[in-house]
């Protein structure tokens, strides 16, 4: 009879532990699918405003406390388009998105790479990121901006 009680207690304890693991396991966290699609970050006024715009055509904002790949291009000056890749990580509260990217364009940078470290913030864990900074090649203020066909356009000839 004593073993039955111990096994019962052990069963309840294991069920509680498994339930907690299932609920909080990182693989159970889902990306913010409401933000799937083009994602734009304007720095120092953005492209067309004297600054630069980073474009990730198929970006998904990562789930809280997770990272995802950043892949796309960067528009700067009046005709320069650089190929850009890196990673984006969202804080555990969901209020900060950190983007670390490298950009290349032989005509504009030679054999050098441009590196940028961008932090975007927002007041709550949902909605658009309203402000931040870029510390890197295209340094300055940083903001998530609305998608436009002009920014999303990748012309055959540039530079």
Question: Mind sketching the topology for me?
Answer:
Elements: H1 2-24, E1 37-43, E2 52-59, E3 66-76, E4 80-90, E5 96-104, H2 106-109, E6 114-121, E7 131-136, E8 140-145, H3 149-152
Antiparallel strand pairs: 1-2, 1-8, 2-3, 3-4, 4-5, 5-6, 6-7, 7-8
Structure overview:
- With 159 residues, the protein is α+β, with helices and mostly antiparallel strands.
- The chain folds into two domains: 1-30; 33-152.
- The chain is built from three helices and eight strands.
- It has helices at 2-24, 106-109, 149-152, and strands at residues 37-43, 52-59, 66-76, 80-90, 96-104, 114-121, 131-136, 140-145.
- It has an eight-stranded antiparallel barrel.
- A hairpin with a 5-residue loop joins β4 (80-90) and β5 (96-104).
- The chain is globular.
- The relative contact order is 0.16.
In short:
By secondary structure, the protein is of the alpha+beta class. The chain has three helices and eight strands; from the N terminus they run H-E-E-E-E-E-H-E-E-E-H.
Keyphrases for this structure?
alpha+beta, eight-stranded antiparallel beta barrel, 3 helices, globular
Number of domains: 2
Q: By helix and strand content, what is the structural category?
A: alpha+beta
Q: Mean pLDDT, nearest integer? A: 85
Which percent bin holds the helix content?
Answer: 10-25%
Number of strands: 8
- Principal-axes geometry comes out as globular
Strand content: 35-45%
Strand order of the largest sheet: 1-2-3-4-5-6-7-8
Uncertain runs are 25-29
Number of helices: 3
Written as H for each helix and E for each strand, in order along the chain, the element string is: HEEEEEHEEEH
């Amino acid at each position: 009879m004593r073993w039955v009680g111990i096994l019962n207690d052990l069963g309840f304890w294991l069920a509680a532990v498994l339930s907690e693991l299932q609920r909080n396991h990182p693989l159970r966290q889902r990306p913010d699918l409401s933000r799937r699609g083009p994602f734009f970050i304007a720095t120092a006024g953005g492209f067309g405003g004297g600054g630069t715009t980073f474009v990730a055509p198929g970006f998904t904002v990562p789930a809280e406390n997770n990272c995802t790949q950043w892949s796309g291009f960067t528009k700067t000056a009046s005709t320069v388009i650089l190929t850009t890749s890196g990673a984006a990580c969202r804080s555990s509260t969901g209020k900060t998105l950190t983007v670390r990217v490298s950009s290349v364009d032989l005509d504009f940078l030679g054999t050098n790479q441009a590196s940028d470290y961008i932090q975007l913030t927002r007041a709550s864990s949902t909605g658009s990121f309203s402000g931040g900074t870029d510390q890197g090649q295209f340094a300055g203020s940083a903001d998530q901006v609305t998608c436009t066909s002009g920014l999303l356009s990748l012309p055959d000839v540039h530079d």
